[in-house]
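Fig. S4 source data, part A: sequence.
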Amino acid sequence: IPMKFRTLLVASLLVIVWQSVACAADRKIYVSDAWIREAPPNAVSLAGYMAMENQSGEELSLVSAAADVFAHVMIHQTTHEGGMARMHHQDQVPIPPRATIRFEPNGYHLMLMHPQQAIKSGDRVTIHLGFSDGNEQPVIFEVRKQAPVK
């Protein structure tokens, strides 16, 4: 391999590594266990769940969510009042420093409205999460029939 080409290749790899490290340093929230509960093909809404870990020393909040395959995505919390489950829209969900907030059935969840295509078990859907510090993070959610086994 000619020296000029090797120098260019090494320089390119260094730039890629530097950009990856810079992006990871900006990301303060780590998302895991992202999944969507499978629903019948004619369902007008689905629910998305995940765990969000704030690895920073400051409180951050989830303030938005969007996905191309849904008409709109809302942040909700299920509460139980008088023996009835009720969903409440949330403008934001605070994530304390060094804490994990779980979105799970009967708690916080993403309400995924009006799927633009059939969503079935095994599919993967990208949802863009927006945080109070201005960062946006694309997260891949796996469609499942039931909650993942922990």
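Fig. S4 source data, part B ends here. The CA atoms of residues 76 and 89 lie 5 Å apart.
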